Amino acid sequence: MATLSTKPGQRFSLPEWHNNSQLISADAEHQRSASHQVRQEARALRNETNNKAKWDEQNNRTRLADRMTIVNRWKENLDKRLADLDAEIAALTKVKEMAERALQAKNLPLDVAIECLTFRESRRAIDVVRDAVEVELHKEVKMIEQTKKELQQRVSAAFEQLCLLQETHQQLSCDRRCKAEALELDRVCHSLNVNSPNISFKVNPTRIPNGTTTLDQWDQNNRCNKERAEAELKASTLLREATLVTIAQTNKDMEVQRVATEFALRKRIRDMEKAHDELKWQEQNTLEEIAEMEEDIQRLEKDLRRKMQDLKVAHTRLETRTYRSTVELCRDEVQDGLTDEVHQLEGSIRALQQKLAEAQ
């Protein structure tokens, strides 16, 4: 026969059971209240973090767009400066080549002037004179040498300026490449979103890479590049203008000196031709005078021979009359006449001989 078994252990009263049920209900209600509070706070936190994440992402997207605009503006500025540098390098190179050609062109006039001075050293005697031509030729040589020196200085300065322009161009080109790379990277970053396939967690993404510069340093570098480019462009422009002025001025000075030298040469040639014509005229007159003198000498010699014959006749007559005898040997008019004739002939002969000596 079955017997009633009793579960061992403590038995609770009904009030205790009701009290326990109330405690369980109160605890459940408290837990639900706490859970509700947590859920509400979680919803608020989720909304807050979503909004913050959204605004942070939007702000950073805006910052990226602004940054791309700034970088692109500087890149365009660099493009303009590089184009200006290319144009200035081409212009300065052209002017430098003009100066080199002008310098080369001075060699021929210098050689001509030196050759003229050398030729004029072949003059002889009284014609070796320091005239206006020699003065102008020396001035021309000195001017050409000074002109070549000035042009050489301009060529050297242009070469140095071209080196500076090339260096500046290289520096700006490097900066432009860096900005183009940075701009492309920022464009990639700007295009990223939560649906992009190539996003992932990175190791220590907030680290600061070595070589990172501050925004002030970045701005200062941009300003320095811009100011250097502007300074080199200005210096090159001034040098080009000064070189062109030097070329024009030296050409003008040389032309003025060339005209002065040619004028002195023409004047000297006219003087020489005039002197030459005068000498030819004097030579012709002298030759004519010599011919006449030779004729007169011949006449003098002929007259002298005639006078000698006349003197012989007079001497012979006087000598013959000395042979008269006695009283017939008298000093008569014939004797006096013959004596006077001898004296006169001797005087004439002496005069003719003296004049003949002068003529010869």
Automatic annotation (TrEMBL):
One Pfam family recorded for the sequence: Tektin
Listed transmembrane segments: none
Coiled-coil stretches: 75-102, 134-161, 269-355
Keyword Transmembrane: no
Assigned GO CC terms: axoneme; microtubule cytoskeleton; nucleus
Example of a GO biological process term: cilium assembly
Keywords from the UniProt entry: Cell projection, Cilium, Coiled coil, Cytoplasm, Flagellum
Keyword Methyltransferase tagged: no
Subcellular location: Cytoplasm, Cytoskeleton, Cilium axoneme
Family assignment from sequence similarity: Belongs to the tektin family.
Protein name from the UniProt record: Tektin
Organism: Centropus unirufus
